[in-house]
Design brief:
With 90 residues, the protein is an alpha+beta fold. The protein is built from one helix and five strands, in the order E-E-E-E-E-H. Helix content is 18%, strand content 31%. Strand 3 and strand 4 form a beta hairpin. The longest helix has 16 residues.
């Protein structure tokens, strides 16, 4: 999935921070999608986004340009559950 703008920025959820330099990031999209590879995320601004679990990867913190919002604890727990289901398989 391509980003937008001159720097091809893409919103991500910082899922797990390992140290000051690297973290696991999960890309977000505004398009509503179904399936086991997507998880609903609602930021505190009330906008519904979809986390693309199949594109989760290790990222360098220098790729973070600005913060767009925060997810609450319940959304984070749901995200963890969806990733766990995906890793377990059928």
């Amino acid at each position: 999935e391509d980003g937008k703008g001159s720097i091809f920025a893409r919103p991500v959820v910082v899922f797990k921070k390992f140290n000051k330099k690297i973290f696991w990031g999960i890309p977000l999209t505004l398009q509503s999608k179904n399936g086991k590879f997507y998880s609903k995320i609602e930021l505190l601004d009330g906008v519904l986004r979809m986390a693309i679990l199949s594109q989760m990867r290790l990222l360098d913190s220098r790729r973070l340009y600005y913060k767009i919002g925060i997810i609450d604890e319940n959304n984070y727990k749901n995200l963890i559950e969806d990733i766990t289901k995906l890793c377990r398989g059928p």
